[in-house]
């Protein structure tokens, strides 16, 4: 079976979904191959872009191979100015590949003015008109050799992000037109969100032979194995077959999921909760065995733990038996993180950065969101992590129904007060998940987001609409002299995926 990760997403580490499925299928007797069409497609565009005319683009185009190699070298990450210039130059060349079309492509996003990823009819049109897609020449060059001697019934596509939707549907349309005997399975995070919406009406039955929501390992095994294995074997992800030295990172970033769902699973307006994603994970011992095996085999520069929140039990195992590699991931602020000795031990285990969804500097807002954290504990944790040498990547969310300008300014004061302990910041404007329970309590607005839209607009109960939030962020929050330097540290385009690399380059 061929598993494909389509354009476009950040191409700095192997795709987690298809590598996890590959390990599981191979352990249970089914051969499969992997194609990271996202990485290969971006490199194809970068190397096939014609010489531009303006000064910046010409310089970036001339140095594209040099800059790509630099992004794969630790030396670049020791010089922040050189790093930012190289990333922006690579992105400049990528944008030039579509400058004469209605498409905007970057290192982190894909938009086509002719099709909306929120409209099923537009996605079907993108599949029908696959030859118009900017990636069509790439597909037409590289996919036929992969499928020339393909003797499998099924082919899988992993669709996780909105930025992948249009290229993925064009790819599917191309496969249906050129290889009609092949059946296409599609799954991934975005597909899961569609299928778990009460408004889902299965508009893609002529394009896809099967759509899978949630984790794809067992459904795929049941599809491929008519014997219905009663006790399938566990296996860590399998990265063999991917061009591991070609990703835009100074060494392999190894993605690993130790759980699915969220062990807290109480936050208001959480998409995970709205979609009914259950929390599950293997034992910490099994996760540690996986990590030891993967680190020994692939010797990564960094391990990326993909969990919505790393379980405290797993953190304790990582402390007791370090895996021999630097690592980072998302964590909830818990009492452990407020203890200096625990944070120092976490640092010794290889932890270089934790991403923290703090969301607000107002306790009233946190309580209304049912975050289960208090600001005193947050401040203690930020300081303890800082003193231990662990970077923090703090996520703040503005415009929730319980917030107004008053609470937003409390967040500003909180962030300014703790600025020396915060390494990176991510600022987001609240989106109301269309199918969240809490959406039923708010007056909704007409929202032309399409039949596949994941979010709704609403009348804010405190008159704190998106325009007011953006004005506050632009004119007050981002201009604060203690906060501005934090925002300027954020890696362009790659953001948190490269942040830890800027701290650990040897």
Tell me about this structure.
Strands 8-9-10-11-12-13 form a six-stranded parallel beta sheet, sandwiched between helices. It has a five-stranded parallel beta sheet with strand order 2-1-5-6-7, sandwiched between helices. The chain has helices at residues 16-27, 37-48, 55-62, 64-71, 80-96, 120-128, 136-147, 162-178, 189-195, 217-224, 271-274, 284-298, 312-320, 340-348, 363-368, 375-388, 405-417, 466-477, 484-489, 496-504; strands spanning 2-5, 33-36, 103-105, 110-112, 154-158, 183-187, 210-211, 253-256, 302-305, 327-331, 351-359, 391-398, 424-429, 432-433, 455-456. It has 506 residues and is of the alpha/beta class. Helix 9 (189-195) links the parallel strand 6 and strand 7 (210-211). It is built from 20 helices and 15 strands. The model has no long low-confidence stretch (mean pLDDT 94).
Search tags:
6-stranded parallel β-sheet
Q: Structurally, how many domains make up the residues?
A: 2
CATH C-level name of the largest domain: Alpha Beta
Strand content: 5-15%
* Gyration radius, in Å: 23 Å
Count of alpha and pi helical runs: 20
Integer average pLDDT: 94
Count the E strands: 15
Helix residue percentage: 40-55%
Classification by helices and strands: alpha/beta
Shape: globular
Q: How many angstroms separate the termini?
A: 39 Å
Q: How would you name the CATH homologous superfamily of the largest domain?
A: tm_1862 like domain
List the quaternary state of the chains. Answer: single chain
Provide the spatial order of strands within the biggest beta sheet: 8-9-10-11-12-13
**Poorly predicted runs:** none
CATH architectural arrangement of the largest domain: Alpha-Beta Horseshoe
Taking the sheet with the most strands, its summary is: 6 strands, parallel
